[in-house]
Design a protein that fits this description.
The chain is built from 11 helices and no strands. The chain has helices at residues 14-38, 40-48, 53-60, 63-94, 102-116, 120-140, 150-168, 175-184, 194-199, 223-233, 235-241.
Length: 247
């Protein structure tokens, strides 16, 4: 966890507010600092062309980017305050400390942070890692049945879930991870007929361009055909003609 509060800290008073302010400041400063470092080449290029430095910095730190940094800082500060506050309250109420206090504290803190920073990518990764950690913990404590190659199968199942999400809603997964999955699967991601998936109601076309031959209009094929055959039937043909580029 990000920060912890000692047992002698109280929920009321300045220590909690000081820590929340510190988390908020570090999050906002780190976000803006990374944005500045990533845009340093563009800033130098614009300055060499004769543009004013203040104008160039204004384009880098535009209002929407500042709002994102502030929302991130508020989310992390809220997470820290909720987690530490609930943990401290449970310790003082029960007059002892216990590892399970982290469960309700982290759940409430996660919901509070997600309300301020609704990131589907972080949610998917956190869910998959949590399920895998629970399985490995259960195996270590002999609480779940042990099967041959169980950890490998669990990891493969999690990768399958991420691959499915990457096919249906690819903007929920980082493009670098989609590219990694594409490589280990023998470029199968590039051979998916994204038009069929988009016409079925998903927004995969937000990331991948639709390449639909005129001979197969989605308005004249059945839903069962789209769900069973259409996604892969034109794989080889489309892959030979052109590889689907990522937008």
């Amino acid at each position: 966890m990000f920060l912890t509060i000692a047992d002698d800290y109280q929920i009321r008073g300045h220590p909690m507010m000081t820590r929340c302010a510190l988390v908020f400041s570090c999050a906002v400063g780190g976000s803006l600092g990374l944005r500045l470092l990533s845009s340093m080449g563009r800033i130098m290029s614009q300055v060499r062309k004769g543009n004013a430095l203040t104008t160039t910095l204004g384009r880098v730190f535009y209002p929407k980017g500042m709002s994102v940094a502030v929302d991130l800082g508020l989310a992390l500060a809220t997470f820290s305050a909720a987690f530490n506050g609930i943990s401290c309250y449970l310790r003082r109420t029960e007059k002892r400390d216990a590892p399970w206090y982290a469960i309700p504290s982290s759940v409430v803190a996660s919901f509070a942070a997600y309300w301020l920073w609704p990131s589907q990518r972080i949610t998917i990764y956190a869910l998959c890692n949590t399920l895998y950690d629970f399985y490995m913990m259960g195996v270590a404590k002999q609480m779940v049945p042990t099967i041959p190659h169980g950890p490998n199968l669990a990891f493969a199942s999690i990768c399958a879930v991420i691959f499915s999400v990457g096919g249906i809603k690819p903007h929920y997964i980082r493009k670098s991870y989609v590219s990694f999955i594409n490589r280990i699967l023998g470029n199968r991601v590039d051979r998916i007929n994204w038009s069929a998936i988009s016409h079925a109601g998903f927004d995969s076309a937000r990331v991948y361009k639709e390449n639909l031959p005129a001979i197969l209009n989605p308005d004249y094929v059945s839903t069962r055909y789209m769900q069973t055959m259409w996604v892969w039937s034109l794989a080889d043909y489309m892959y030979k003609i052109h590889k689907r580029p990522v937008v």
